[in-house]
Write a structure and sequence with these properties.
The complex is a heterodimer of chains A (113) and B (114). Chain A has 113 residues and is mostly beta strands. Chain A is built from no helices and 11 strands. In chain A, β7 and β8 form a beta hairpin. Chain B is mainly β and 114 residues long. Chain B is built from no helices and 12 strands. In chain B, strands 2, 5, 6, 10, 11 and 12 form a 6-stranded mixed sheet that branches. In chain B, strands 3-9-8-7 form a 4-stranded antiparallel sheet, with no helix packed on it. In chain B, β8 and β9 form a beta hairpin. Classes of the chains: A mainly beta (113), B mainly beta (114). Chains A and B meet through β5, β9 and β10 of A and β5, β6 and β11 of B.
């Protein structure tokens, strides 16, 4: 158990509304990641963080923003949700610099209607 | 661009049979290599990893994987599958340049016949 929680676990929202997903870790690891999982695409990286206030884009960052004001929390925001953002979102942490191992949270299922 | 390919979208095997899931990568150097498993409705769990050294690595739940540099492959194997092994399996590559990130394959869904 890597001490990662995600909230909410399920959410249904309407097109055009803002949505924020939260990832919380209890072990003060430096690296945190947000992925989306869609059938046929595996996991695709949205944004990642390598420290407080240090974030960067992944391969599918359009329409998403992130913030990390504390080591333990990494927030993913959909400023104006679209139906194409219906997906399962996973947060992950990287425990050690140079090891590349990542440990995943339980996921958030988001439906945009 | 770096990529990871899992050629089999879905595999069905009988309980007790052997299993091999394929993974090929495209990368300029030997990357770090990982296999993850995802049970329905769950997050991903790390099965095993390869960084360097012995090309045959052992993981949890009786799984092993072999790195073959000449084939750019990192195939996952298990001698005898159990019904509880039914899940989706993901191969991932750690990019050794720039930020500490993983690239995932599309996944292989494993079904076990009783």
């Amino acid at each position: 158990d890597a001490g990662i929680t995600q909230s909410p676990r399920h959410k249904v929202t309407e097109t055009g509304t803002p949505v924020t997903l939260r990832c919380h870790q209890t072990e003060n690891h430096r690296y945190m990641y947000w992925y989306r999982q869609d059938p046929g695409h595996g996991l695709r990286l949205i944004h990642y963080s390598y420290g407080v206030k240090d974030t960067d884009k992944g391969e599918v960052s359009d329409g998403y923003s992130v913030s990390r004001s504390k080591t333990e929390d990494f927030l993913l925001t959909l400023e104006s949700a679209t139906s194409s953002q219906t997906s399962v979102y996973f947060c992950a942490i990287g425990r050690t610099s140079g090891s590349y191992e990542q440990y995943f949270g339980p996921g958030t299922r988001l439906t945009v209607t | 661009a770096q990529s990871v390919t899992q050629p089999d979208i879905h595999i069905t095997v009988s309980e007790g049979a052997s299993l091999e899931l394929r993974c090929n990568y495209s990368y300029g150097a030997t990357p770090y290599l990982f296999w993850y498993v995802q049970s329905p409705g769950q997050g991903l769990q790390l099965l095993l990893k390869y960084f360097s050294g012995d090309t045959l690595v052992q993981g949890i739940k009786g799984f092993e994987a072999e790195f073959k540099r000449s084939q750019s492959s990192f195939n996952l194997r298990k001698p005898s599958v159990h019904w509880s092994d039914a899940a989706e399996y993901f191969c991932a590559v750690g990019l050794l340049q720039g930020a500490q990130k993983l690239v995932f394959g599309q996944g292989t869904r494993l079904t076990i016949n009783p």
